[in-house]
Amino acid sequence: MNLLHLTLRNVLHRRFLSLLTVCAVALTVAFIVLLSLSRDSVEQGAKSGYGPFDLVIGAEGSETQLVLNSFYHIGAPTGNIPLAVLEQAKLDAGTDKAYAMTTGDNSGGFPVVGLDPEYFVTRYGDQRLQSGRLYAQTGEAVLGSHVAKTLGLQLGDTFTGAHGLIEEHESGGEHDAEESAEHGAHEEEDAHGSFLYTVAGILPPLHTPDDRAIFTTVDYAWAVHGLAPEDREITAVLVKPGSLLGAHDLKEALDGQGGVQAAYSSKAVSDVLNAVDQGSRLVGIITALCIVLAAITILLSLIAAVGERTKDAGLLRLLGKSRAYVWMSLTSEGLLLTSVGLLSGLLLGHLGAFLLQDRIFAEAGIQLNPYHWTQTHVLIVAGTLGIGLLSSLGPAFRLYRLHPLELFKS
């Protein structure tokens, strides 16, 4: 009898147990694949998030918070700094490019970022927009590709902003705030509601956090609040140093001066990645437990198969089949179940990444690439097949050792 035909017949004979084994392997592999894609996306996004801007200047506070807000549009800014800091950074001999940034508002839950349009040329090169042009006047805006897709905005459309970095919805509860605070909140809301933005352009997919932001002129916040020139401040200054020595000198000159801090972008990102690595250890333990459970499932399936097919194995031996044939029949069954579960898990993991990519990007700014295949996939395939083979050896060796008459009598 053909070995493959025998293996398929034995697998189909125990449909439920075989399906349970395949599902256990598939879910474990899918979880590992999704975890691997997420980890690669976090590392790749973190490294490419700040581009050539190795230094960022902002208000004193957490360096990590400053970098995450400035480049990844996550969290709140550390505060505002005088506009004069921008000129000081530009005049420094170690500075190649320096751009002011203003943040603090949102539209539809996406941050509104005031930034010099030259930033896009410095960061992404002479790249064409998906449609339209860069903003040139106060009130014009350029949308990230994810923002345009989510909000359904097109060229020429107008929209309003709101104060804060998330869209706030009125909820029920106690109304015990002071009347003066309510009056100030209404004035703030009226100021934002009366200021209209016009979509001048839409960025192409950049696969960076800039896909989920709305960009406009730096003076948008001053126009919204009607600030006089002497009251104008900015949130941060993004600096592209001319050299590492220039970045060091500029940091030494500005850091701690008048409530201002200068932070290295790479250092803050490394701190975030280290924190993520520490948290991923717990996920790694859970993954290891899933692998052990999948291996146990394969082992129990084959032990059950040995109990059912002991007489069949003895008959095959009496008909002249070798021990190796009997051993291979059971081992190939374990490898077949493992292989089917492996392929299903790979497809399920990438399908999950495809279905979750927009949701994860909107919530955490992590750009999952469901079509990304790396060396990790090779390790997943080799490891899964290795576990399947090891789980098959014990039951198969039990049949291999017994004499044909003992097999048949049992």
UniProtKB/TrEMBL annotation:
Q: Which InterPro entries match?
A: ABC-4/HrtB_transporter (IPR051125), ABC3_permease_C (IPR003838), MacB_PCD (IPR025857)
Q: Which residues form the ABC3 transporter permease C-terminal domain?
A: 285-404
- The segment(s) forming the MacB-like periplasmic core domain are 18-242
Instruction: Identify its membrane topology class.
Output: Multi-pass membrane protein
Which keywords are on file for this protein?
Answer: Cell membrane, Membrane, Transmembrane, Transmembrane helix
TM region positions = 16-37, 282-306, 335-356, 377-400
One cellular component term from this protein's GO annotations in UniProt: plasma membrane
Q: Which domain of life is it from?
A: Bacteria
Q: Where is this region: Disordered?
A: 169-188
Keyword Cell membrane belongs to the record: yes
| UniProt subcellular location | Cell membrane
The subunit field of the Swiss-Prot or TrEMBL record says:
The complex is composed of two ATP-binding proteins (HrtA), two transmembrane proteins (HrtB) and a solute-binding protein.
Q: Which PANTHER family match?
A: ABC TRANSPORTER PERMEASE, ABC TRANSPORTER, MEMBRANE PROTEIN
Question: What is this protein's function?
Answer: Part of the ABC transporter complex hrt involved in hemin import. Responsible for the translocation of the substrate across the membrane.
Task: Provide the family line.
Answer: Belongs to the ABC-4 integral membrane protein family. HrtB subfamily.
- In Swiss-Prot or TrEMBL terms, this protein is called Putative hemin transport system permease protein HrtB
The species is: Paenibacillus donghaensis
